């Protein structure tokens, strides 16, 4: 199956700016499935780190190292969580370029929440007839207690998302909520960031 674009959500960066091993696996998987792109590398960072690092730029650099031409690589640096990944992938790239057949590649531990959020967000009005497919890269490079803790957090985050998803019917409604009520995007949180939590940072 050929896709109009391949979307890779952010998966964290190391202190030296490299992708985490499990994030790099996502890009390896994406290129193996469809080497020609276009590829959309997502995420400005995560609020669980002390300062955001542009994960999408680290992803773009990694794609270049794999031999992907630069004109096949698109970045998105506005998002700080998976809801933002989906929202900005759609409004910054897919809606604009009429890319409708999409593959989303992420880690196995991240897939249930990713698929739920992307199917929800890309299905909201205005309806554009998106066709989404999903591919999971293995969890092998995140192991042991770290993997178990991340799975637990993913399950809790998915449950929290499902509780509120039915409140929204359009991109406009999501936009209004993100900038008024979402702690990663609302002005109050930007002006007064929450305290840095090193335990959570280690999962991202």
What would you say this structure looks like, in words?
The protein is built from eight helices and five strands, in the order βαβαβαβαβαααα. A five-stranded parallel sheet has the order 3-2-1-4-5. 46% of the residues lie in helices and 12% in strands. With 204 residues, the chain is α/β, with parallel strands linked by helices. It starts with a strand and ends with a helix. The mean pLDDT is 91. Helix 4 runs parallel beside helix 5 (144-165).
List keywords for this structure.
single chain; 204 residues; alpha/beta; 5-stranded parallel sheet; 8 helices; 46% helix
Overall mean confidence score, pLDDT: 91
Give a quick account of the main beta sheet: strands, pairing sense, barrel closure. Answer: 5 strands, parallel
Shape category: globular
| Euclidean distance between termini CA atoms | 31 Å
Strand proportion, as a percent range, falls in 5-15%
Strands, total number: 5
The percent of residues in helical segments reads 40-55%
Strand order of the largest sheet: 3-2-1-4-5
Radius of gyration over all CA atoms, rounded: 16 Å
Please mark out the parts with pLDDT under 50 across 5 or more consecutive residues, or reply none: none
Number of helices: 8
H-E string = EHEHEHEHEHHHH
Structural class: alpha/beta
């Amino acid at each position: 199956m050929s896709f109009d674009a391949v979307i890779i959500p952010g998966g964290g960066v190391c202190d030296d700016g490299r992708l985490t091993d499990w994030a790099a696996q996502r890009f390896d998987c994406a290129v193996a499935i469809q080497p020609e792109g276009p590829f959309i590398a997502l995420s400005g960072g995560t609020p669980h780190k002390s300062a955001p690092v542009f994960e999408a730029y680290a992803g773009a650099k990694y794609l270049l190292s794999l031999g992907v031409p630069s004109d096949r690589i698109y970045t998105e640096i506005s998002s700080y969580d998976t809801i933002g990944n989906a929202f900005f992938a759609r409004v910054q790239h897919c809606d604009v370029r009429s890319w409708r057949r999409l593959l989303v590649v992420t880690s196995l531990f991240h897939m249930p929440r990713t698929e739920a959020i992307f199917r929800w967000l890309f299905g909201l009005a205005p309806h554009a007839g998106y066709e989404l497919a999903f591919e999971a890269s293995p969890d092998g490079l995140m192991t042991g207690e770290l993997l178990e803790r991340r799975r637990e957090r993913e399950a809790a985050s998915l449950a929290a998302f499902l509780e509120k998803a039915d409140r929204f019917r359009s991109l406009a409604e999501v936009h209004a909520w993100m900038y008024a009520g979402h702690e990663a995007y609302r002005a109050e949180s930007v002006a007064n960031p929450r305290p840095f939590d090193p335990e959570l940072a280690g999962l991202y």
